[in-house]
Write a structure and sequence with these properties.
The protein is of the alpha/beta class. About 30% of the residues lie in helices and about 20% in strands. It is built from 7 helices and 13 strands. The strands form 4 sheets. Strands 6-5-9-10-11-13-12 form a 7-stranded mixed beta sheet, with helices on both faces. The chain has a two-stranded antiparallel ribbon with strand order 1-2. A hairpin with an 8-residue loop joins strand 1 and strand 2. Helix 4 packs parallel to helix 5. About 30% of the residues are buried.
Length: about 260
């Protein structure tokens, strides 16, 4: 009887472990590509209904820039991030920064202040949403401090910054409308066209940074990774420069 009882307990434990951690597998033959969707927080067992997150030493910086800085959108996203991961003010995972509100100095908007926010932090990754002009220059200076190779990923989602500069500082760019279509008459404070499911896209990116945190490899499988992040929003394809016909290695467009 005892051996049977032990076997049953072992099987139950394996099933429980399998249900707690799931992975999204790609179609890559060896199955090596996966993004964990294990939640960052667990339900409070005391019956309060509140989600409990864990303190984090490494921080994930989320910059809310053009198209993602309207008050309703920001409030909704901050509520979700606070409940699932906690924010840095409470020793949580996320450092939310809002452009231009958090980047004003002497009456001017300065994205260069980003370096002040990053100083002294243990960084697990940076996510740029609607990055404003010259964000790439700030990240480039940060790269110089790490001998041009950052030990953490930088994900650029729908940037409004220089294309080539953003490609240089990012593990990948996910875009909807090429930035060259943005003119001086464009109201960049208007709500971005891609907000219908940005929360799930953002959370997928955060979960990768939280559970893996390694810079993505610049190889033929990069597009598979980005498609996993973007699966709730649409299908991606690589960006092709209309003037040169050159296909970008880490720049992707949503169909």
């Amino acid at each position: 009887m005892r051996p049977i009882f032990v076997i049953l307990c072992t099987i139950s434990a394996c099933l429980l472990l399998n249900s707690c951690t799931r992975s999204i597998k790609s179609h890559i033959p060896d199955g090596s590509l996966s993004i964990s969707v294990r939640p960052a927080a667990q339900q409070d067992t005391k019956g309060t209904g509140r989600v409990q997150w864990h303190p984090a030493d490494k921080k994930i910086i989320v910059l809310f820039g053009y198209g993602f800085n309207t008050e309703p959108f920001i409030q909704d996203m901050l509520d979700k991030l606070e409940s699932q991961y906690g924010t840095a003010k409470n020793n949580g995972l996320i450092v939310p920064l809002i452009f231009p509100d958090d980047f004003k100095h002497s009456g001017r908007e300065r994205i260069s202040l980003l370096t002040d926010y990053l100083e002294g932090l243990s960084i697990g990754g940076i996510i740029l949403l609607g990055a404003p002009e010259n964000t790439h220059a700030v990240i480039s200076k940060l790269m110089a401090a790490y001998d041009k190779t950052l030990p953490f990923p930088v994900f650029s989602l729908f940037p409004q910054d220089d294309v080539l500069g953003t490609e240089y500082i990012s593990d990948f760019i996910l875009d909807a409308v090429h930035s060259s279509k943005i003119t001086d008459e464009t109201n960049l404070d208007d709500e971005h066209i891609i907000t219908k499911d940005i929360s799930s896209l953002l959370i997928s990116a955060i979960n990768y940074l939280r559970l893996d945190g390694q810079p993505l490899k610049y190889d033929v499988f990069l597009g598979d990774y980005v498609q996993l992040f973007a699966k709730s929003v649409g299908i991606i394809h690589r960006y092709v420069d209309t003037e040169t016909g050159i296909q970008a290695g880490n720049h992707f467009i949503l169909e």
